[in-house]
Design brief:
400 residues
């Protein structure tokens, strides 16, 4: 068994103790915060049929600690979400989260970083943020990360990273999902040939595991990162992938007899990503298009994901800012291709809002979110409208 929350908390504390003690002149921050959120949700179960509307109050006390010096950085964030449903009080819960990171630079050429996190989320209208697949159940998720960077020369840097995640779902119909991901990347500064440009090559390997499936995915890409000026930048990469999948297949022999056997699938294809970014003093925006293979959370394997997303934020005055985001994703997998089950879902998300900074430690935010999930297999869809008002108070006690 992997660490539970208590054991992870001990690990996070150990990271702080094991690191060098704070030095004079070090940047220290200790920020307690509390967030009060009122939400009107017209489909709290993200159901296809009858919809349930409810008023949800979420209270989130949290504590952030960070310490930065010339060679190392430490950050720990923890807190809990107390959810209270006005009409469906059986859904009331106390969720929790903790996240820690540690970065250390041995010398100007070599640096390492590590991180760990644990999140308990019980909301019944959840959508996976990475894929757009509907989860509609609570879960416990833990993640661990380790990476290193080494400057091979003045123009080239090597990066290697490993990420482990494991998610256990409340709904027994969704499978516990474990993911191992390893990536190696090399970049080269092309400034001698093309100003403010880098050539990037990468190799990746991932293994997605459930109790009935195993998907091994190998990828290789080559890309270009280019900054045109202080405002505009573009990133483009593309390549190929090879995927090997193994699944447990259950066959009905007689009305009273089931036989389980192994099935496998091999396939290849292309992957790619294009992103365009704009940044100025007041206005920031990004547009991203992607096509790849990624973990199908809670399902028996992986999914082929095609998506587009855009976001825009603008600071109108010193106190008032606004934002807009739109995302569309299409997840698909034939039975026993990347997943033991057929997947064909489309997700559209629209998010917009305004934020007003009442003071340096208090802000008020209004937000509207629209979700629509279309299930192609059954030609049905689930939609959701959420209106939210959030008050946040946070203060660095080290500045008092």
């Amino acid at each position: 068994m992997f660490p539970d929350l208590a054991r992870f908390t001990v690990t996070a504390i150990f990271l702080v103790i094991a690191a060098p003690l704070p030095l004079m002149g070090e940047d220290l921050k200790l920020i307690p915060a509390v967030t009060l959120k009122e939400e009107i949700n017209d489909n709290i179960f993200l159901a296809v049929g009858s919809r349930s509307t409810d008023f949800i109050t979420t209270t989130t006390p949290s504590l952030d600690y960070s310490s930065a010096s010339e060679r190392r950085n430490i950050a720990i964030s923890t807190g809990f979400n107390w959810l209270n449903y006005a009409r469906n009080d059986v859904l009331n819960s106390v969720d929790y989260f903790v996240q820690s990171s540690f970065d250390y630079r041995f010398d100007p050429r070599l640096s390492v970083s590590a991180g760990a996190g644990y999140v308990r989320n019980s909301r019944p209208d959840r959508v996976d943020l990475d894929t757009g697949l509907a989860l509609k159940t609570g879960s416990d998720r833990q993640t661990y990360q380790l990476s290193g960077n080494y400057a091979v020369s003045e123009k080239s840097t090597s990066t290697i990273s490993y990420v482990y995640s494991r998610e256990i779902y409340d709904n027994p119909g969704l499978l516990t999902t474990t993911v191992h991901n390893v990536s190696i990347a090399q970049d080269y500064d092309l400034d001698s040939y093309l100003r403010q440009a880098k050539l990037v090559g990468s190799f990746g390997y991932s293994r997605d595991l459930t109790n009935i499936s195993q998907v091994d995915n190998y990828t290789g890409t080559v890309g270009l990162m280019k900054k045109y000026n202080e405002q505009w930048g573009i990133s483009l990469n593309g390549g190929g992938r090879y995927t090997h999948s193994e699944f447990d297949v259950t066959t009905l022999i007689t009305p009273m007899q089931l036989v389980t056997s192994k099935a496998s699938s091999d396939g290849s294809g292309w992957i790619g990503n294009l992103s365009l970014n704009y940044s100025s003093e007041r206005l920031n925006g990004a547009l991203s298009l992607r096509h790849d293979i990624t973990t199908a959370s809670g399902r028996s394997g992986s999914t082929e994901r095609t998506g587009i997303s855009t976001n825009l934020s603008n600071r109108f005055t010193r106190e008032l800012s606004g934002f807009f985001g739109l995302g569309y994703s299409w997840n698909r997998s034939d039975r026993n291709q990347f997943s033991a089950q057929l997947i064909d879902e489309k997700n559209l998300t629209v998010n917009c809002g305004l934020r007003y900074d009442i003071s340096s430690y208090m802000s008020l935010e209004g937000n509207y979110r629209y979700n629509n999930i279309y299930y192609s297999q059954s030609s049905t869809q689930a939609s959701q409208n959420v209106f939210m008002l959030r008050l946040t108070m946070r203060r660095d006690v080290m500045d008092l």
